Amino acid sequence: MSEKRTLQELEKQIEQLKNLNAKNGLDLSAEIDNLAEKLAERQESAKEELDEWDIVKLARHPDRPSSKVYIDRLTDDFYSLHGDRLLGDDKALIGGMAKFNEQSVMVIAQSKGGNASKSKETNFGMLRSEGYRKAHRLMDLAEKFGFPILTLIDTPGAYPGKDAEEKNIGGMIARSISKMVSVDVPTMSVVIGEGGSGGAVAIGAADRVLMLENSIYSVISPEGCAAILWNDENSADEAARALRLTADHAKELGIVDEIIGEGPEGAHKNLEVTVSSLEESLNRNLSQLLELDRETLLAKRHERYRNIGSFKRVTKEE
Amino acid sequence: MPLFRDEEYLRVDFEEKQEKDEALWVKCKSCGKLIFKKKLQENNHICPNCGAYFFLTAKERIKTLVDSESFVDETRRIESDDPLGFIDVKPYEQRVNEAQKETGMFDAIIAGTAEIESMSLVLAVMDFRFIGGSMGSVVGEQIVNGIELAAEKKFPFVLVSSSGGARMQEGLLSLLQMVKTTSARNLLDREGLPFISIMTYPTTAGVEASVASLGDIILAEKGALIGFAGRNVIEKTIGEELPPDFQSSQFAYDHGMVDAVVERDNLRSELSEVLKFF
Fold first, then answer.
1. Chain B neighbours among A 210-239 (CB < 8 Å)?
2. Which of A19, A114, A224, B268 could be disulfide-bonded to A220 (CB atoms 3.0-4.6 Å)?
3. What CA–CA distances, in Å, run from A189 to A148, A260, A303?
4. Domains in chain A, start-ordered, CATH in brackets?
């Protein structure tokens, strides 16, 4: 906490000096540079001290930019589409057509909502069966029109509810994964906040998977894991460390291709930096994918997922 | 496509050794009655008193499902390498070792070729005793190998699920087995081969939300548990009690998730009836 206050204090001082600089015509630029350098150093070391649980908190930070923010910043002419054509429209899943660098794309994004009333409307980013069916429908459309697919992942997990089970939510997640691995257009996924278990991977089986620096991607929530394995929800921080749910680890495992830097203290403090590095990466990856013919694209995707796993040969005697 | 033909395979020992330190009697969780173990085995592991289903080990399942002596084990000799160095109240490595000792298996699945009434198939069967039948890297790999073998031999693929879901102790790698198995499953579509998914107790979470729910035909064994989120989690979320038959085989059938609910004694004949179409 005190380190955080020191950082804030430094930021404030720099701000004040900049104001003085501008107002009085004094040349304080050397002072400012000096302080800015100090700040950067301390921010860097503060970052190194972040453990998995700190990152969980950052990934869930109430001010963390939601997918709506990224859609606004990264694309033009977003045209929102609604409904799964059977049961309803899941507000936890935003989807629609947009222009990304003049290229028509299909955006499929999980939305936590942001503020309290919005969060309720979007069910805190927990999709129901309708949401996964809607995702499937949008992938069908993208395939028909040859639009590359961009998915933004931010969910604590699929909705654990009676109605969701009655509407076969597991089967809908399975069908969404199945569609995504077979769709014959380029696909890119970005974990922007929480990549919570099956509900996240349902729209995450892409040709390129990116992760924001302070986002998490996990087989189960740390709380859920703690409740089952430690028999104690309060061991969530311990579970988070054991699960190694950070971007660095996901990249080590080859599940994530690139980590998008957020700058010090997270994306909500450095939106411009985050958006511009994300945009650069998406651009580069999309142009690479667009160069592949359909067969190569699908073969590479199949190979990518065929090889995920870690095991060894049995050496013990039977 | 690598099919690991050069690997050695283990043989399932159908002449099961007399288990030494196991009790002769077991208690039925449903009616509480003590049952003579041999009698339970003879009754397909169904309680002779109340009709409750005991879950079957993978070997027992294979025995009850396919022609005797037809099963050729093609399970690869691979085991978990504890990629996360995971430790909860117990190290994961220890959990794996204990499960291997208890079950005599490398991990929670056996896969191989078999015949039912002389019809060939590739059969993969999960075993709930092995860390809840959970799917980590090894289970995912064995399922994919089974699918690839089916695609190579042009056999139908049959998966018998008995799994609580993805294996937490392998973290994200387990989650991605959902994608790996689903992606492989699509090979069967390309070859026009049937995939028959048999859901038994339990087929839940990451396994239910991936390959198990993608059967061309899905049979649910009576007494199965089928669903995505656990009952406790749902009750806590919605704050109300769920009906007793929630996530039962009948519940899954009533909600259009499976093609049939089949009694254990009839599963073999039902599967054979389905396979005759292909």
1. 217-220, 224-225, 228-231, 239
2. A224
3. 11, 12, 17
4. 55-306 (3.90.226.10)
Contact B80 A311 (CB under 8 A): yes
Strand partners, B196: B158, B217
The answer to whether the CB atoms of B228 and A173 lie below 8 A apart is yes
Cβ contacts below 8 Å, chain A against chain B, sum to 194
Question: Min CA distance, A146 vs chain B (Å)?
Answer: 21
- Residue B77 identity (one-letter amino acid): R
Query: What's the rounded Cα separation, in Å, for the pair B101 and B88?
Result: 20
- Please provide residue B239's backbone torsions phi and psi, each rounded to the nearest 5 degrees: 65, 30
DSSP E strand stretches across A149-282: 149-155, 187-196, 208-212, 216-218, 258-260
For chain B, list the domains and their CATH numbers. 56-275 (3.90.226.10)
Nearest Cα to B270, choosing from B212, B197, B219? B219
Instruction: Tell if the CB–CB gap between A219 and B171 is shorter than 8 Å.
Output: yes
B260 and chain A in contact, CB less than 8 A: no
Separation between Cα atoms, residue B122 and residue B154, nearest integer Å: 9
C-beta atoms of B209 and A173 within 8 A? yes
Rounded CA separation B246/A166 (Å): 9
- Interface membership of B172 toward A (CB under 8 Å): yes
Is A310–B83 a contact, with Cβ atoms under 8 angstroms apart? yes
Give the one of B86, B180, B209 whose C-beta lies nearest to A242's C-beta: B86
- Integer Cα distance of B46 and B43 in angstroms: 6
- With contacts defined as CB-CB under 8 Å, which chain A residues touch B86? 242-243
Tens place of pLDDT for every residue, chain A, 318 residues? 456 566 777 777 787 777 777 777 677 888 888 888 887 777 776 666 799 999 999 999 999 999 999 999 999 999 999 999 999 999 999 999 999 999 999 999 999 987 778 888 899 999 999 999 999 999 999 999 999 999 999 999 999 999 999 999 999 999 999 999 999 999 999 999 999 999 999 999 999 999 999 999 999 999 999 999 999 989 999 999 999 999 999 999 999 999 999 999 999 999 999 999 999 999 999 999 999 999 999 999 999 999 999 999 997 655
ipTM tops the 0.90 cut: yes
- Give pLDDT tens digits for B154-211: 999 999 999 999 999 999 999 999 999 999 999 999 999 999 999 999 999 999 999 9
Question: What pTM was computed for the model?
Answer: 0.90
